[in-house]
Design goal:
The protein is α/β, with parallel strands linked by helices. Helix content is about 50%, strand content about 15%.
Length: about 270
């Protein structure tokens, strides 16, 4: 068994996302070596610098940092030199250069780029959340969702979740499967955030038959039987009423219209 590689410590006054990306981009060029990356974010005090130095000194690690605070950056450089630790400054040289070229002192506000572009980061986080919580995955994290969509197979939960996530909403979606009890976690959620999706059974049968055709899989007869699908949809309606979930009809609606209906319900209730 090979010896573990010394870690790389990513040190930042913000979240450390920028430095992490640089480090992982470089490490991708060394695919045979698995180097631990330890991110130490929101570093604003000298004591935190001392802790990082102590960790790197004891492990033989490397420090990569994006500190914009000149005092902390200078302290880290001096302490690293004294302890013979390699500390790579990704931010300082460019800050110093631009301060001269632009004849302007940098603001030295950690995380400023992220704050200025927070809507973009929120949107990316929402998309990641929707993908990770598609089709009933990770029920323990459903309470984090701003919207939970629930409905039977092929009613359009996933595309609507993805569309809403692009608009910045954290959405989970939960399938209702004929003959099976809904997941218990669904009833632990705030019912005001759970939206049921309804569809005309005839249209739903058409969607399911098209899916079977594309997959070249015959599937179960009940899956596309109009009578069975009608009862499945009625069972979903009963569940929505019993649990206190609002529901919307998505039959033949453009996804933008369905999204508008969902957002209108949520904003009316929570002002979000």
């Amino acid at each position: 068994m090979s010896e573990p590689f010394p870690p790389i410590y990513v040190v930042s006054g913000g979240t450390g996302a920028s430095a992490e990306q640089v480090v992982y981009t470089v490490l991708a060029q060394f695919q045979e070596s698995h180097v631990p990356v330890i991110t130490i974010a929101h570093v604003h005090r000298e004591a935190q610098i001392e802790d990082v130095i102590a960790q790197a000194a004891s492990s033989g690690g490397t420090i990569v940092h994006t500190l914009v605070d000149a005092k902390l950056r200078r302290m880290l450089a001096e302490r690293a030199t004294a302890e013979e630790i390699v500390a790579i400054d990704l931010m300082g040289p460019l800050l110093d250069h631009l301060a001269v070229v632009l004849d302007e002192a940098p603001l030295e506000h950690p995380g400023l780029y992220r704050r200025l572009h927070q809507p973009y980061f929120d949107r990316v986080a929402a998309i990641d959340y929707a993908i990770a919580h598609d089709d009933g995955k990770r029920p323990e994290e459903w309470p984090e969702a701003k919207i939970v969509l629930v409905g039977v197979s092929r009613v359009g939960k996933t595309p609507l979740s993805m569309y809403l996530s692009v608009l910045g909403w954290k959405v989970a979606n939960v399938p209702l499967i004929a003959g099976m009890d809904p997941p218990e976690g669904l009833f632990d959620l705030d019912p005001r955030r759970v939206i049921g999706l309804r569809m005309d059974p005839l249209r739903l049968v058409s969607h399911r038959r098209e899916r079977q055709r594309r997959l070249a899989a015959p599937g179960l007869e009940a899956y596309t039987d109009l009578g069975a699908v009608t009862e499945e949809m009625e069972a979903a309606r009963r569940l929505f009423r019993r649990a206190g979930f609002s529901s919307i009809d998505v039959t033949d609606k453009p996804i933008e219209s369905s999204a508008h209906d969902v957002i209108e319900l949520i904003t009316r209730r929570f002002g979000e």
